[in-house]
Each structure stands twice: as structure tokens, then as C-alpha cells.
DNA sequence: GAGGTTTGTCAACAGTGTTGACAAATGACC
DNA sequence: GGTCATTTGTCAACACTGTTGACAAACCTC
């Protein structure tokens, strides 16, 4: 009953995702999305109660590209590592939408898929429920958080990125060595290599710490 | 020479900080800040090239409350832990400004103080320059990232926060157990306790992993 | 065909950052 | 003291943003 719907949540979220892919996430506004769909901006409010909800749906839409099924024979650590790396990669691609996904768990389908997969691998690795939950939160904080930090520069070209890192390194090196001796001494290694490398290093360190915690706990208890 | 300046970067940033403390960071707009300072909004652009730059200055202003000098006899791990905890606490208090500080190193005075202090403690802990830089990046990614995740809820009252965590926990518990067996099984432990606890757990795990890495490297090399 | 319901359209409101032309107020120079 | 250049704040405007309430079109049910 009622006037037939030209729009739908699916059509809207797909058009929004395409708009974001083509023109960046800052181009996602009610008016531009209305133009893309050939409808009035206010029509969107018939399907989403506000732009925030719409954007969270778009964010979850992008999470679909994270592969959560573990390959045959893949060690649980490798699976966790891979999921975190892919999750971060997705968020780097759409930083503004990632901000919404990160603000609160959307509890939409793709996010649930990832949560389930991470918990599955952790429990496969011998984590008890409480330990698995704690480890999950730690991994998410590092992964989503690192993405938040690296997102701004990730949007720029590799050349620009390297230049920015170089600028920062040189800036630290040029500081007053009497006031900032350690920053000056270490400057050559700050922002060295890629953000991906830095994240994977941190992820490995965190995983090692998490495993150590669960092992000592297991032997004690 | 020229017309005497009624405004200055200091006056502006202080008024902005006060405005943020009293009415939240979303209240920081050119017009409201102009009202608070008794000047036209556009006058701000004589001192900051745009609102982004102004907001980054305000963000750095808040970083001043992080104490970076280590107490007498404080172990380096304890100092690192404390600095990270305080840094996160500051960012939780002003989430929108934290987003700007995190987007790129502001390289303003307070941020430099924190960077210097963290590197100092790490090197005191036996980290070689390259290892100290890597550890520094890991710690920042976790700390600033965790703040980004927890910021939204941190703004609400403790009661609302607990209620939100409870809602999420119950939502995970109510999922289809055939599709999400692990999420359902672990649901009771998800978002359990405070965000502070979860961060400190992750921080300790990361620190343990970082120490282990530097120790094995030290014994090998 | 009449009524009810859903869905899209239109105009408007209250905000936002930002810019360019203008005026006020100074120090420097003659 | 008068002129001039420079700095600094004011004003009006532009192009946006999300969002809402009144209205109309299009369908289903009776």
C-alpha cells in the first residue's frame, strides 16, 4: 500500500558508496546524494532517520571486503593478523566513514562478521571467553586506532606521503638538542618506513604480549 | 606599526579552550568564538589561516596537562604507562579536538614535550634509537587510537555509558547462535568493565610485547 | 470511486567556514 | 603637523551543510 518506493536502503547505500569511492567521503552530503539518485535530498530521511545513520550503513558496507573465513591450515595467529590488517586497510580507504564505525559498534552485518571471526580465531588459539574478549578489544583498539591516525596521509599519493614523513623527520632532527635531546637523537628513525610496517610491528608486539599473558595465566591456573 | 591588535593567538586560543570546556568542542565555531571574544568572526582569520589550524592549536593547548617529568625513582615502564594513560585521558575529554591532533603531528610545543618524554623513558629502558622509535609509534597508535574509540561514550554520563555497554553486551548475546557462536559465547565478557581498564590491559600487553622484542634482539645481537 | 498510507517534492530555517571590500588606527617619514 | 603605508577589525555576502513541516502524487483496500 502507498506510493511505490523508488528508493530503498540498498539503493541509497550503494549510490552513497559509489559517490564516496569516486569523490571521497567528504562528498557524501544529503544534497549530492540526492542528485546522484535523482531525488530530493529530503527523500533520504524516509529511509534513514539522519545522515549519521546513513553514513554508518555506508561504513558497514565497506567492511564487506574484509575476508573473515580462514584459509585451510592457516594458523590462528596468521588469521588474526590478516583480519586486522585488512580491517585497517578498509578504514584507511574511507577515513571519514571509519570515524563513524569507530564511534560505536554499528552492530550491522559486516561488523558482526568480523567480530565473530576474530573471537573464533582467538578461542581456537586457546583463549578462554574472558581472555578472548579482552584480547579482542585490545586488537580492535590498536587496529581501528592506528587506522584513525594513518588515515589522513593515506588519502594522499605515495610521493606526498613520503615527503610529509620526511618533513616531519627533518623537523624533529632540527629541534633544539638541549631541550629535546631524545627526539633529536631518534629523529632519523621516526616515521621511517611505511605506516603499514609500523602498524604490523605494533600488531605483532601486541599479539606477543597477549599470548604471553594467556600462557602464564594458563600455567598458573 | 599598523592598527594595534586587540586579538592575539594566545587570547584566541584561551577563549577557544574556555568555550570548549564550558560548552563542548562542537560549540567551537568561528561565530561563537567571535562572540566570546567580542569581535567579528572573520577577525580570527587574521591570526589563524583557517579553523583547522586554530583547532589544532587548541588541541595542543589541552595537551599541556599531561605531566611528562618522571617522579624520582619511577621505573621507566611506570613512566611510560603513566604518560600514555594521561595522554589518553586528555583526548577523551576533548574528542573532536583530539581528532585534529591525531590527523597529523601538530609539532606544537606540548606535543613535542610528550614525544620527548616517551622517547626518553624508552631509551632509559634500554631501547636503541630505532627500537625506541618503533616502540614510540606503537604506543601512540594504541593510546591515541583507543582514545578515538572510547571518546564518544566518554562524553556521556557514567550511567549512560554503563547502559550502552549493557545494551551492546545483550545485543551480542541475543544473536543467532548458529551464525555467530563465538560472539554469543563471549558476549558476557564484551564491553565488560570500564574503557579505562580495557585500555590499560591492552597497553600492558603491548608493553610486554615490546620489551620481549627488544630483549630477544639484545640477546641475539 | 473514496479513504488511508506511503513516498517523494518543495521551500525554508539555522547553522557552518571563508572571502573581498572597506574603515579605523597606528608608526614612520618628510 | 600632514601624508602614507601597513596592520587589524568590521560588514555583507557566498556556497555550503543537516533537517523539518506542509503538500502532492501514487498506490492498496474497501
In short:
Chain A has about 220 residues and is mainly α.
| SS field, number of helical segments of chain A | 10
- Structural class from helices and strands of chain A? mainly alpha
Note the main sheet of chain A.
Answer: none
Helix content of chain A: 55-70%
Regions with little confidence, pLDDT below 50 for 5+ residues of chain A: none
Largest interface: A-B, 63 and 63 residues
Give the helices and strands of chain A as they follow along the chain. HHHHHHHHHH
Give the beta-strand count of chain A.
Answer: 0
**Strand fraction of chain A:** under 5%
Oligomeric form: homodimer
How does the overall form of chain A come out from the CA principal axes? flat
Radius of gyration of chain A, in angstroms, nearest whole number: 21 Å
Mean pLDDT of chain A: 90
Question: If you had to describe this structure to a student in words, what would you say it looks like?
Answer:
2 copies of one chain form a homodimer. Chain A has 221 residues and is an all-alpha fold. Chain A is built from 10 helices and no strands. The mean pLDDT of chain A is 90. Chains A and B meet through helix 5, helix 6, helix 7, helix 8 and helix 9 of A and helix 5, helix 6, helix 7, helix 8 and helix 9 of B.
What attributes characterize this protein structure?
flat; mainly alpha; DNA-binding; homodimer; 221 residues; 10 helices
